[in-house]
Write a structure and sequence with these properties.
By secondary structure, the protein is mainly alpha-helical. It has one helix at 2-72.
């Protein structure tokens, strides 16, 4: 029984080392992905702002066309 009691204590440091390695790997992955997501987010917001401006321009052109058409009648 004493050898069985010794066995888990020997295996625990291995599990802890494996867990620490996993934590380090996940932290590194998240640190690498963070800037990429920030860049994509910035680009996405820039595209959305550009689309909003284009829609505003198109709406203004349509209104100008409608105003011109109604003045002629």
């Amino acid at each position: 029984m004493s050898s069985a009691g010794d066995s888990p204590s020997v295996a625990e440091p291995t599990r802890a080392d494996g867990s620490n390695d996993l934590v380090k790997a996940v932290d590194q992955l998240l640190n690498n992905l963070g800037p990429k997501f920030s860049k994509i987010s910035t680009e996405l917001f820039a595209k959305m702002d550009e689309m909003a401006q284009r829609l505003d321009d198109m709406e203004a052109a349509i209104k100008a066309g409608n105003d011109t058409g109604t003045e002629g009648n």
